[in-house]
Design a protein that fits this description.
The chain has 707 residues and is of the alpha/beta class. It folds into 3 domains: 3-270, 2-enoyl-CoA Hydratase, Chain A, domain 1, CATH 3.90.226.10; 306-481, NAD(P)-binding Rossmann-like Domain (Rossmann fold, 3-Layer(aba) Sandwich), CATH 3.40.50; 508-600, N-(1-d-carboxylethyl)-l-norvaline Dehydrogenase, domain 2 (Orthogonal Bundle). The longest helix is centred in the middle third of the chain and has 21 residues, at 336-356. The radius of gyration is 28 Å and the shape is globular. It binds 3-hydroxybutanoyl-coenzyme A (3HC) and 1,4-dihydronicotinamide adenine dinucleotide. 3-hydroxybutanoyl-coenzyme A binds next to strand 5, helix 3 and helix 12. 1,4-dihydronicotinamide adenine dinucleotide (NAI) binds at residues 309-315, 332-334, 338, 389-392, 396, 400, 417-419, 441-443, 533.
Amino acid sequence: MAEQPSNDANVVTLRNESDVAVVTIDNPPVNALRHAVRAGLAACFDKAEADAAIKAVVVACAGRTFVAGADITEFGKPPVSPILAEVCKIVEGMSKPVVAAIHGTALGGGLELALACHYRVSDAGARMGLPEVKLGILPGAGGTQLLPRAIGPEEAVRMIVTGEMIGAKKALALGLIDAIVDGDLTQGAVAFARKLVTEKKPLRRLRDQEDKLAATRKDPKKFDEIAASLTARLRGLRAPVACVESVRNSFTLPVDEGMEREREIFRELVTGDQSKAQRYIFFAEREASKVADMPAGVKPRDVKRAAVIGAGTMGGGIAMCFASAGIPVTVIETSDEALQRGLGIIRKNYEASAKRGAFSMEDAEKRIGLMTGTIDFNAVKDADFVIEAVFEEMDIKKDVFGRLDKIAKPDAILATNTSYLDVNVIAQSTMRQGSVLGTHFFSPANVMRLLEIVRGKATAPDVLATAVAVGRKIGKVPAIVGVCHGFVGNRMLRARSIEAERMLIEGALPQDVDGAIVEFGFPMGPFAMSDLAGIDVGARARKALGVRAEIADAIADLGRYGQKTGRGFYIYNPGSRTPQPDPEVEAIIVAASKKNGITRRTIDKKEIVERLIFPMINEGAQILEEGIAQRPSDIDVIWVYGYGWPIWRGGPMFYADQIGLPYIRDRLAEYAKRANDPRLEPGTMLNRLADQKATFASLTDSKKTVA
Ligand code: 3HC
Ligand code: NAI
């Protein structure tokens, strides 16, 4: 973490405002509860307890937020006393009322600290949550026992299993906080504390509050139903199940036993492989948008208005990202028909989300109201950030960029959403190559978190910084990549596709290949994914490259484009997205084996997984060697957020380090020999690291340990 104060003695301070002590945590940037903070809290609370002149205590935070949780960098290391649970016990046990004053975000251990206080107030903008599940753990300082006592087990299990935050208004309605303070928060909290004293209000320790548990104790059916729906599709994740178990303990066990069991489960999870991988991704995500050679002091450009060229599959989704983030956006099409179709889909998507309860219908209308559709290309002149999402054809892109250059504001940034094309060549059709870059969204663009930011050879630092800032603002996880065919994600995907196809010819069927990788933890396999994206899309991309995929192309030639035509590698019942094996596809595959003189054999799951994943790792290593990705962890972020790599396996490069690079190198050499395909040969970097018995992680000097 940056900006840590040099003097640990000042991270927690105590000042007396007449008869109320204000304990202030000041540990930038997010007031994480590292050891010095915990020790400081314990000391300040002891002092406040001992001071007879003090009648109440307020705990508040300096800077941008209340405590955002335990210090994640300390996980995996031996715990040092006082641990957070001990601090919470001191706070809870105080003989004078303690009030938490929450601003920003009270998360994880931060919310647990607040739950240990006798009362909680916040400002109107505060948000609260227990996001531990996203790190592969559960709240370990009483959260699973105290939150149900504050808001009821049903609401608590929902918050704890999803890890999502709630705002101050909802927190007040649920009983998580006692008041929303207008004006100065600390002063409001002091006044609130003083009133408690004057009115002789009891110390309200949540551990003793049982009323919100009563209904669930009597009939846990609703709780069970919510828990079941929250854990229905976990694909191997363990933490959510543990969260449910622990919340259930809140109404089935006495509080001390519940607390003890929570602590045991926490210890089990925090030392496990899943949490290690998830913590790694937490830091990797934040690293991926940092540019190693960014000059100091570079400021992003101001982006008040965006424009998107093309309202097709991607353009529509991209425009939604801007509108949802409150940024006005102009959508430009070539014909009224295409425009109306695109805007119609956007409206339908927003209305569907509102119906699902993601936001109100009024919010949906607000978002739609931020969009302007037009077929007048000149409308681009008002935009600060333009994203082109027209057909994937170089000549069309060049034409669009040439026109954009003439019409857009001089300092407007021009971005392309191309999947494969050379961003440098696209930039050359403008007189402002420094303001051109790639912003590669993933489908559906309004849902998928990943944003590959493609840095061209002329892209200016402030343009890159602006793309990162815009990416964050619209809720994406930006990862910076260099120019090459398919950038990082699609280039590695291609390595996987080649091997997937080869396995079909050797003896596997689509459902065997997909089944093995789904069992590994992916939401879907390569063939189901092709059916979803459209087999014609891949076929066109191969054609442009002058390469063939025997089976995929044969299937595309039959007009079987996947879900959109009801048939692809699988067959789909009308209205269904569930892939069903199709004997016609099996016949095509078997015929291809025969034509190639191959006797089909059963390929076991282990081999399928290795042959899908090891070539990707090899390609990833090559990408690093070429400097297309800055760090191995960037590649992992791309695969987790763009392609459904199971987060608890930490991404392909992290996974490779766990398996061991010498093993992967040897297996690839063997597969290359068998297939007589030099593309499978281990590349320079993989060979070198394997020889040195080194890891991909050793290539970066990260201080964020997750050991
Ligand atoms: N521990 C250590 N470092 C943390 C941290 C934490 N809990 N939370 C954030 N940081 C670091 C980030 O790595 C980043 O460091 P960098 O500047 O060197 O890259 C810096 O703080 C700023 O973080 P963000 O870039 O994420 O800042 P944002 O303003 O975008 O977001 C936030 C702020 C919403 C607080 C976000 O950082 C966040 O969600 N943090 C994690 C919250 C969390 O998971 N808390 C639970 C921790 S586990 C726990 O409490 C266990 C307990 O039950 C015992
Ligand atoms: P699409 O075919 O759905 O949409 C393209 C739209 O651009 C059409 O509506 C068309 O009318 C419009 N258009 C064409 N020329 C135009 C012009 N000169 N001015 C304004 N509008 C114009 O295509 P899709 O899938 O949205 O792809 C767009 C871009 O995004 C491509 O470069 C593609 O490679 C890339 N991409 C696609 C992904 C996907 O999964 N579909 C994923 C990531 C990137």
